[in-house]
Amino acid sequence: MFGLENQKKKKKYEQFVFELEKELKTTKKHQEIKKDIEGKVQKLKELLREGEDKGDYDTLGSLLYGYTSLLKVMSRFSAKS
Hints:
- This protein has one domain.
- Helices cover 64% and strands 0% of the residues.
- It is built from 3 helices and no strands.
- It has helices at 19-23, 27-50, 54-76.
- Helix 2 packs antiparallel against helix 3.
- The N and C termini lie far apart (51 Å).
């Protein structure tokens, strides 16, 4: 009564799934993404070893940190075939 009828029926919401999680469910796509990111990490390490100016060095370091974090998350996510 008076708009209180719908309180008993609680709607169940779907759990949010990121696009990356959807892509990582296939083993082939998981391996492709991992290989691509590992290649980018190696390139970033080479650029950091060469020694860029301070601004570029900080930016490249942040990118390297982000990519390595992504690899850690991917390793925890089990690829299902």
